[in-house]
Amino acid sequence: MFESATFAHHLDKAAFKAMEPSLREDLLTAQFQLIEQKRRSLIVLIHGPDGAGKGAVLNRLYGWLDVRKLQTLTFDMPCAPEDRPAMWKYWRELPPFGQIGIMLGSWYHAPLCRRALDEMKRGNFMAALEEIQRFEAMLHAEGVSLLKIWLYLDAEEARVRLKGVTKGDWQRPVVREWEELKGAGPRKRLLAISEDAARATSTETSPWHVVPAADEEYRDAMAGSLLLEKLRALVAEPEPAPQPLAPNPTRLPPALPTFSILSTLDLSKSLSEDDYDRQLAQEQSRITRLTNSPRFADAGLVVAFEGSDAAGKSSTIMRLRRALDPRRFRVHPIAAPTDEERARPYLWRFWRHIPAHGRTVIFDRSWYGRVLVERVEGLCGPDDWGRAYGEINDFEAQLSAAHYVVVKFWLAISQEEQARRFEERETVAYKRFKLTPEDWRNREKWPLYEAAVTEMVDRTSTRVAPWTLVESEDKRYGRVKVLKTIADRLEAALG
Questions:
Q1: What is the pLDDT of residue 2?
Q2: Quick one: 127 and 202 in the same domain?
Q3: 256 in a domain, yes or no?
Q4: pTM for this one?
Q5: What is the pLDDT of residue 169?
Q6: Is 437 part of any domain?
Q7: Does residue 276 sit in the same domain as residue 337?
Q8: Close Cβ partners of 194 (under 8 Å, ≥ 6 residues apart)
Q9: What is the extent of the structural domain holding 54?
Q10: Domain of residue 425, CATH code
Q11: Cα separation of 174 and 177, whole Å?
């Protein structure tokens, strides 16, 4: 894949100056069309050995584009230990639709670096590349396009360039992406490993482009031309047609009765008031002790609450809050996405709230809205919610790998109990705000939600992030089960 880049490529300064004005004009025209359409965003990944001119290419593109809709996405020492999941920093910086981000040091850095240092075996390296492929496929499906550029420079030329950056009493700033690689051996291995990675992750929607970097004018002209080609392709894409809604949200043949996993729950389970008070205090004490322990400083807790309307999510969260240090947790109630959130992939608004180690985040409704309300209400098509199961599993696996305990609850009640609680809310002044006409209307779609919940649990209850179905007909029983589950999971994770 790097073969042609090993040969000399040259563009003299006069030819570069002659082509530059029209290239700049065409780039700005295409960028303005991208801004106006606001259908997609673009991330330009610039990789290559230190000395290949990554910073120079970035600066050149800044001179050619409208900087008001352009972001630089850079990350210091991506291989260094972090107090959040490795992908968090990349998710946080995703540009909104209509904008361009230029990224130096992307999600490829850590696996390439660790493989070059022989800290990662080939099997693990290939698994990391497969995970990257899935991530990039999700970005593309969610409106984020990628232009992946590798600036090719052989290892010896890169070494000579790095040594020659000092002139007089000042030193030109150099983008050092691979500071962890000391010596010629790891840097030479990086080149071979990078070619393997480029082959493995060069897909139809996100291919790698190898740019010879020995000649600065040729390098910059080719990078600019690749960007222009990508922008033109993006703005020429037709408006996506709306996906047809699935007429039957279940997966069972029509002749078979519809199965609901919620129907297996024994909703008659209950606790006496005395047992409730005793067990609630016990589980709150366990959670307090565990989340304040020194071992929790290198871990984190992510709790997601889903359930039927009026199933008791808010009151259960209140009992959990009382077990946590208010300085070290946040609760995020999830409603319809804002304009800022709709301008990015749906997981962005959850990734950006993942806390540092030693802290807890509680989601009152969660990323599962994609396969629940968005599915049932027709807010996204079958292709979108169908691929979301795998995307969610990847998200939760990344949290678990970064030592976060992921606890997920579905709070279940019967239709009769829900109606009783709705009627109670209508008569209690301070509870009326919790009830809307939408809540009554959603009761008509109870079977559709049951089918969606069943498939959700089947496809996203994993070893690292299992679902806990909570019998919440009796609020006392449900609250204690939730807190006990959290305490048990923390205890198992922290040892």
A1: 83
A2: yes
A3: no
A4: 0.92
A5: 46
A6: yes
A7: yes
A8: 47, 112, 150
A9: 3-236
A10: 3.40.50.300
A11: 9
Q: Residue 252: inside a domain, yes or no?
A: no
Phi-psi region of 143 (alpha: psi -120 to 50; beta: other; left: phi over 0): left
Query: What are the per-10-residue average pLDDT scores of the chain (495 residues)?
Result: 83 96 98 97 95 93 96 80 91 97 94 93 96 97 97 82 58 72 84 92 96 96 98 92 57 70 97 98 98 97 96 97 97 96 97 98 98 94 96 98 98 95 80 71 89 97 98 98 98 94
Pairing verdict, β 329-333 and 170-171: unpaired
What integer pLDDT is reported at residue 168 of this predicted model? 46
Cα of 408 vs its chain's centroid, Å: 18
Amino acid at 149: I
